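Our example pasted here:


***
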Amino acid sequence: MYNPQNLKVYLLDAKDSDTINFLFSKFSWFIPDMAIFPTSAQGFVVFDHGTARPLMAFHAMPYIRKMRIGALSVLRVSRILSLTGSWDEKLCLALIRVLQGLGQGFQVRKIEIEVYETINAEIFFPSSNCSIDVCNDPSLAQCLRAVGLVPANTILTYGLSLDSIDYTEYQSTNISVRPINSKSDIDRQEYYRLWADSGKLPFFCSAGTRITRWYEERPWYEDFSPIISNDKFVLFAELNGNSQGFVHWWPNNYRMAQKYGRNSIYSSRDKIAALQKEIKEAKIFKLAISTTNQKLRRLIERSLLHDAMSCMASNFNISQCQVSGITKKDESLLSTLEDLGGKKVHSILLFEVNK
């Protein structure tokens, strides 16, 4: 046992990260630590100072959440791992105490804990809508509930087989779909405009094209690695020449890193293209539809899903797809995915804690 008064928090360094990866690689819910995004996230390890025993590790990042009136400073906490082997109520209470202390240090008004509740299939890349990998033992969600926390939101992921889809059934003569031109300033601005207009952008943008106090999620990434910088990964839906929404997807690059090592993500574009065709898995992690044309929302969603999945199958040899970032409010999207044979495979809970 440990004394809550003896908890000490340290920054997570590279050596600690390797240890955590080794300890948790045997669990089915584990995903590799791939720090490939520019991010303001920082890793932390909590020790029992009396025994020098490591208790838990997590990542945290501050951001400014948009509100109907004003804004709210939030600390998002993800990738929470127990280093004792399991979760219990005492360890959860210790976690909350540590996070409240960090919240005061970050001068935020609320703390947001991102936790997987159910994992019924492997987690595809990317694992979260935040800028770092997310994984945890699902029993953590049960413990957080047991100590009195109530989820503020649930985020779902659906999985489906592309082999069973009749793509001709979902073609539209009214909506045209095209890839992003990543070198076009207009397309870049349109990406963020649609994301904000859809209500799916939870934080503020600066100058319309950059994310502040979280991370800069550039849809092009041409300066980093071809693993995530391909214009076919972002598709715009247009009606009469006006953008109505977009879909953003990536191949399951976890699979490539697991099979060929993390250095494979820095290979040449041609080499990466060949490796990604071997993965046969992908995830749609962002589907943003403008609120200005709600009457055509279902048609726009179907058109984007149709063209994205058709592109995956024909250009990247992908047969399995996951669609994430879904909430219960996305009724038309849920209906469309179920029509396509999709099944719920993951659920993430967002718990909120006042500092």
Q: What stands out?
A: DSSP finds eight helices and 14 strands in the chain. Residues 158 and 343 are 5 Å apart (CA to CA). The chain has two domains: 4-156, 161-345.
